[in-house]
Amino acid sequence: NVERVCYVRLEQAPSGILKAYKAGRYELATIPEAVELVRGRALRVGAYGDSAALPVGVLRPLVAAAAVVTNYTHAAGYAPSRADRLGSFTMASADSIEQARQYQARGLRTFRVSPSFELVGGVRRVSDIQPGEAQCPKTIDKSVRCVGCGLCDGNRRALRGNIVAPAHGKGAAYL
Q: CB count, 10 Å around CB of 104?
């Protein structure tokens, strides 16, 4: 995590996935079988890794079957056309207000991490919230679960507004 803005600790998710795979906890499934597994349920695309690396044709049927999708991509900055194809079900990860505005101008909803926050009653409250942004509910109330919230569902359900969260984790120092 040397000088990375993203808070995700690279050694955790891939290691856990590899251990689960080696233990036989992952089953192979065809796309139609996978669609039935997620039908009407919440789908989180990727534990760590950018969904822009996956074929959009594989993702679309899964996303169409899911009730709620949680997905993020940094591709808006390095592969704009790919991120635009994911935009209907993906939040564009933004590391600054300027970056968020650029992505929003392209019609993408953003999830921005902010280094500007105040500690209020033990809760980090973002102090540079922009018009059209709301603070991630989970960062205000730890009982909120992403699977139940569903605000990070890209443009799928005609949700409006963008999400901002206070910088957290080891990457916060590099914002």
A: 18
Banded pLDDT at 1 (limits 50, 70, 90): very low
Are 132 and 164 spatial neighbours (Cβ–Cβ below 8 Å)? no
Which CA distances in Å does 167 have to 12, 23, 27, 118, 172?
A: 19, 35, 36, 11, 5
DSSP string over 73-123: ESHHHH-HHHHHHHGGG-EEEESSHHHHHHHHHTT--EEEEES-EEEETTE
Element at 3 (helix H, strand E): none
- Residue 12, both tokens: 């955790």
- For 21, counting Cβ atoms within 10 Å of its Cβ (0-12 exposed, 13-18 middle, 19+ buried), the class is exposed
How many alpha carbons fall within 13 Å on the CB side of residue 82? 16
Which residue, 131, 150, 36, 3, is CA-closest to 89? 150
Rounded to an integer, what distance in angstroms lies between the CA atom of residue 32 and that of residue 61? 8
166: β partners = 114
- Record the pTM: 0.83
